[in-house]
Specification:
Structural class: alpha+beta
Helix content: 10-25%
Shape: elongated
Strand order of the largest sheet: 1-2
Distance between the termini: 64 Å
Number of strands: 2
Number of helices: 1
Radius of gyration: 24 Å
Strand content: 5-15%
Amino acid sequence: MEELEAELSSVPGYKKPENVKTEKEVLKSQTDPECGYIHQARKKGLGYLTEMTFDTSHVA
């Protein structure tokens, strides 16, 4: 990596990228650690990730 950095720095007009640190806010329930924050276009709030399968051939 040092060789690549040296080669890039020798290119005219090259600027070393700035180190930008971003903090991501994690929203979690204080009482239920499995509960997460849902942020979708039509839904927002605390909820659970679920996967379900339905057998429609035996519906009454």
